[in-house]
């Protein structure tokens, strides 16, 4: 098995088995070679369009170069993200990086609803300097059997086409990607396991979020959410739902219909009260409500059924308004 990839930096995941079924390529040059013609064509399209992506706002380009080079003219002349500079640091920070894993013996594409989907086992795209939102629009009819990692990027707006044209059987990782706005069809995204949207700048969730069905975790922690849409109660999460470390002040009334198979994490928010009939909510494991500003609990709250732990610590609740069932029945006096 040869690996002469014509100048492309490659990393071979070589397992201690008689047959090597997977190859991992890390590409950060313009020269692209792959036995799968469809993969090669897609990568070329991404690289050719990368130069049209916008630079990150308020970005200081001087850190590309040594302190001896104080002129910005060189940067203006070599503004293309794909250059032949001998300085590896310039090349690393100014280029698009793509890491992907593909199976050698698997066919090059799969037919789904009369569309030919390019197959990846794993895909990671990242850029230190540019907005890659436009590139995500170019991922048309892509089928990923494992995970797609888009973390630590600059993606202020996740494209609608990405949610429509990409099928992910594993995790979608969008952690710390400066996302401000989610597409209106985010509820239609096809993710097999976990969806990580934590450590972003999301303020509003689209109404379609209620259509989301995930077998794993949905992580929306450490964002800038102040409220949840009414449709949020229809969401179906197989494992954990994490809304911690936001600025949520109220919950929608139909939150009691939510289906969470694991933990429901609402700690470190700004909740002042809980909706009526909140005791009807059914959580598969723990309900985390600590570090909020709860002052009153709804009537009948003591009937709440949680499979794991209920944490109400570090709130403003007064003991006299907490109604809990008696632990020991009083003995009848004869």
Given the structure, what is the number of helices?
A: 5
Note the overall shape: elongated
Poorly predicted spans: 1-23, 59-90, 319-334
Structural class: alpha/beta
Mean pLDDT: 78
Encode the helix/strand succession as letters: EEHHHEEEEHEEHEEEEEEEEEEEEEE
What radius of gyration results from the CA coordinates?
Answer: 25 Å
**What's the end-to-end separation, in Å?**
90 Å
With strands numbered from the N-terminus, the spatial order across the biggest sheet is 1-2-3-6-8-10-12-14-16-18-20-22
Total domains: 2
Helical percentage: 10-25%
Give me the count of strands: 22
3D architecture notes:
The chain has five helices and 22 strands. It has helices at 37-50, 73-77, 88-94, 133-137, 160-165, and strands spanning 10-11, 22-27, 97-103, 109-112, 115-120, 122-126, 142-144, 148-149, 166-168, 172-173, 190-191, 195-196, 213-214, 218-219, 236-237, 241-242, 259-260, 264-265, 282-283, 287-288, 305-306, 310-311. The protein starts with 9 loop residues before the first strand and ends in a 23-residue tail after the last strand.
Architecture blueprint of SSEs:
Blueprint: E1 10-11, E2 22-27, H1 37-50, H2 73-77, H3 88-94, E3 97-103, E4 109-112, E5 115-120, E6 122-126, H4 133-137, E7 142-144, E8 148-149, H5 160-165, E9 166-168, E10 172-173, E11 190-191, E12 195-196, E13 213-214, E14 218-219, E15 236-237, E16 241-242, E17 259-260, E18 264-265, E19 282-283, E20 287-288, E21 305-306, E22 310-311
């Amino acid at each position: 098995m040869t690996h002469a990839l014509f100048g492309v930096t490659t990393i071979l995941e070589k397992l201690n088995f008689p047959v090597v079924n997977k190859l991992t390529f890390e590409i950060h040059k313009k020269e692209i070679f792959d036995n799968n013609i469809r993969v090669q064509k897609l990568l070329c399209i991404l690289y050719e369009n990368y130069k049209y992506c916008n630079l990150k706002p308020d970005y200081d380009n001087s850190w590309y170069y040594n302190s001896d080079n104080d002129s910005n003219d060189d940067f203006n002349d070599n503004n293309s993200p794909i250059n032949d500079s001998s300085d590896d640091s310039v090349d690393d920070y100014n280029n698009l990086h793509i890491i992907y894993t593909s199976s050698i013996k698997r066919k090059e594409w799969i037919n789904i609803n009369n569309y030919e989907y390019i197959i990846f086992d794993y895909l990671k795209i990242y850029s230190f300097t540019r907005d890659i939102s436009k590139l995500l629009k170019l991922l048309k009819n892509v089928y990923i059997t494992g995970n797609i990692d888009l973390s630590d990027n600059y993606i202020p707006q996740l494209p609608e086409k990405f949610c429509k044209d990409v099928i992910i059987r594993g995790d979608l990782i969008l952690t710390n990607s400066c996302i401000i706005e989610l597409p209106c069809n985010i509820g239609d995204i096809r993710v097999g396991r976990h969806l990580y949207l934590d450590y972003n700048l999301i303020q509003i969730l689209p109404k379609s979020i209620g259509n989301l069905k995930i077998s794993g975790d949905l992580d929306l922690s450490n964002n800038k959410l102040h409220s949840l849409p009414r449709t949020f109660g229809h969401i179906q999460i197989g494992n954990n739902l994490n809304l911690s470390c936001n600025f949520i002040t109220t919950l929608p009334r139909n939150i009691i219909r939510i289906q969470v198979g694991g933990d429901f994490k609402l700690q470190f928010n700004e909740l002042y009260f809980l909706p009526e009939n909140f005791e009807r909510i059914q959580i598969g494991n723990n309900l985390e409500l600590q570090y909020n500003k709860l002052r009153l609990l709804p009537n009948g709250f003591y009937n709440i059924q949680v499979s794991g732990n209920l944490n109400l610590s570090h709130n403003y609740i007064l003991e006299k308004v907490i109604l809990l069932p008696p632990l020991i029945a009083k003995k009848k006096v004869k």
